[in-house]
Amino acid sequence: MTAAAEELVPAGPPGSAVSEVAQLPPLSEEESHFLVERVWRFFCSLKLTLANLLLLFLAMIAGTFVNPQNDSLANIERAFAGRGALLGAYRTFELYDLFHSWWFTLLLTSLALNLIACSFERLPRIYYLVRYPERRLDHVVGLRFRVAATASAIDAEALGERLRQRRYRVQAPEEGVLFAERGRYARFGVWVVHISLLLILGGGVYGRLTAFEGIANVRQDGGIAASFIQRNPDGSMFKHRLVDERGRPFVVQCTDFRLKEFEPGRPKAFESDLIALEDLGNSEPGRELARATITVNHPLRYGGLTFYQASYQQLEEGTRAKVTMFDRATGKSRDLLVAAGEPIRAAEGLTYQLVDHNPDFAGLGPAVRVVRSEDGRESSFWVFTRDAQFDRRNRDDRFSFSFERLAPLYATGLQIARDPSTPVVYSGCFLLFLGIGIAFYTSHKRIWAQVRDGKLALGGASHRNAEAFGREFDTLCAELGLPRK
Amino acid sequence: MTGRPLGYNGGVEEVSLGSVEGLLSFGAALRVAAIGTYAAAFVSYAARLAVQKLKLDRAATALAALGVATHTAYLVTRWIAAGQIEILARERTGDVLSGYDRFWFMVSHPPYTNLFDALNFVAWAMMVCYLIIERKWGLRVVGVLAVALALVAMGEASLVTDKQIEPLVPALQSYWILIHVGMLFVSYSLFTLGAACALLYLVRTGTPTALLGGVQAAVAALLLSLIGGVKLLTQATFEMAPGWQHQIQSRLHAGKLLDVTTAVHVMVQGSEKAVKFLTPVSGVGPFLLAAVLLFIAGAIVYFRRREEGTSALGYRLILSGFAALTFGLLLLVYRIVNSPEIILPAEVQLAPGEHGPFKLSLASNYALGLIALVWGSTLGFLLTALFRDRIAESLPDPRKLEDITYRVIIAGWPLLTIGIVMGGMWANEAWGRFWGWDPKETWALITWVVYAGYLHTRITMGWSGRRPAAIAVFAFAVVVFTFMGVNLGLTGEGLHTYGAG
User: Fold this and answer.
1) Using N-to-C axis directions, what is the helix angle for B141-159 and B11-50, rounded to 10°?
2) ipTM more than 0.90?
3) Any idea where the domains of chain A sit in the sequence?
């Protein structure tokens, strides 16, 4: 190492980069022997923070490599059947669900206690710093921006007025001494960030105690779900009844599921039409409570439960046609999913059957052929996807049809979750955005001035972004006619 | 729906298809031009560093700015083309879109949703951030590293075969993708620049070669271990995901088929999940393991001799590790290029829709890219260690380098934090859980923890100088693994797989 290089090694980061709050002496200097205070000090310590972060770092790396497929304990027991020690480790350290294991939770708890202790310890210090600032220029040391006493025509009052115009809060503790500051709240930014992290962690704990989720598969042709199954990482299962916040049972009916594709194998959208119905405890469906078409990013929320489109299952080989049958006599229409040749008994002695499908009938698009049988007499006609009113206009018959699509019979896979912690976590998130906004994009600026015997001395400091403040300080000096090196 | 033309025969759509195709070829030309301009900028930045008399400052900056402008234009064409494809794909399948729908689908597909686009986007973000740094603080030295990294990322993108824009899968059809992913990628590029500044700081302050080499070897060993996983460390077996080739209809030329390589997925026993199938690549494992062990040995020797400044033994150990890595890498490329058909074991159940023949392939190959990155950075160390005094002399004031490392990192950290949290909010809205410990989520949090550590040591404990700089350099390995390594398939399949990759 050359001598020149050694000289250039900086002695430390610029003063503005190190937290002033951290530099304040501890509130009591004396070494305490009280156990409580020693525990408190332990949880306030930054070394603990760093240790926590380091352990979390290692644990999380391990977490992504140990049991990456999230196999349940039952599967792991099967895989490690002959290896008792390894299986023992898996069980003891709950490696089948590492991120919810007792020791990972302990680590997070330690981080949370650390955060709580530091936040408690910090608040009075920040308050002290903001409430009782050093207001006399000659008492402040180590200022980066400073102009030594220079002859100047400006008096304290005019200077105060100028600073007020720059939206500073100006105080004059004594004759010829000015103290102006702006953005005091910026000092609380980091504190708010830490509190919001605590809130998010707390929301996570609350969620872990109260939230649950599970799966229900519901047939698309009017299938009804009254409960859903929760699968736990240890392999156990639990069945939840669908109930709203007040404990009233309800059911969810799926009236249609659509798997839309750009082309085979390239999904465009998964959609389920859901209706929440009152559960009257018998086979009759009750009053309609809510209705929605859900897609992957747009769930249905009802009664404190959220219904997400999570998966689907094909229930049988082959396809069915989705048709709507309109009854002129009653003015009502019915949606049907029928297989080829399956008779639709529309009225006494009157049946319809779908017999043929053409993906593009004479350039008019997809169509199905329907055979009408009434008392042994048969006739047939085509129904088109493009024009839903076509059949109603063209055929004089009590029942008319429209054809929507040909698709397999599916059951929609609903993920159903109750998570009362969401508002807590969300308020933590918004508080975090606010805290980050304050901590990283605002600064607490202070300007000290002393006017004595026609001479003006000026000093300034900003708790972050000293560069921008430096420019502001230079402009101020130029306005006041002070020399700036 | 009345009388609307569907299918491929509508005259109007024929015209707009042509325009998308034209836009994409124009974009491809812009991308090549951007790479060329960056290459010229790299030469200028390197020349002004090597020969100080040359007055190349302005030329280098102008070239970099021109490269960024071209690159921006390229990304814009890509974004517009993706939007038009989203709209056309829907109109072709019979959807009737309102004006609002058209606007939404136009912007809904940003140019960072597959590996190819993501690499190009990160290179762009890094160059933009670099130019801002240069404008504010005039640190042209960093330019060499920034442009080199951008070229590496774009070169790696060129290797990816699957460049076609596909309409987004349902899970990604959300406005959150615009905010969440973009923010995280910008933060990753800022951290990369921070690592570059920190590295230069370490060189400038005369940090002993032993320390630099130790950190470099440790980082290389860590990354290789993460890439190889438990199998490499315990059984000297290197596993990677083979691909299966299939053909898909070109979206632009009706009737033309495109070759696409997709990683093979198999079903997990007793569950409905599909995960990447991994197969051992014969002969590569021992070389990689040897490289890991030699790097660890090199790091230990270097750390023990750090008082002496340098160590010939340490250098030789890393050199031999590098040789082992080179053989391993060459063998891996050879094995991939000459891959026989891979027969799946009988007990493995294939994911639905996938079929053979299965082969190792270069396309979308994260393992290869990451090993190449380790190889390149080790080579970088081995070469620069020889000329380090000359390089150190030409670097600016270390205080400035340290200050800028810090500023770049505190610019990236809020973006990382907000990006992660917004990812949680998206997950909560789409899947009903805020946090699911999915590998990408976890690794983003690991990155966050590392930088939280950096900020606390620096701001609260007042550490300065080499220790925070070493953390910033080390953190780069974590950022790289978060960006690409999670997609290797070792850590399980999450929901963040860069489209079909």
Assistant:
1) 140
2) no
3) 33-128, 136-183+443-480, 207-316+410-427, 320-407
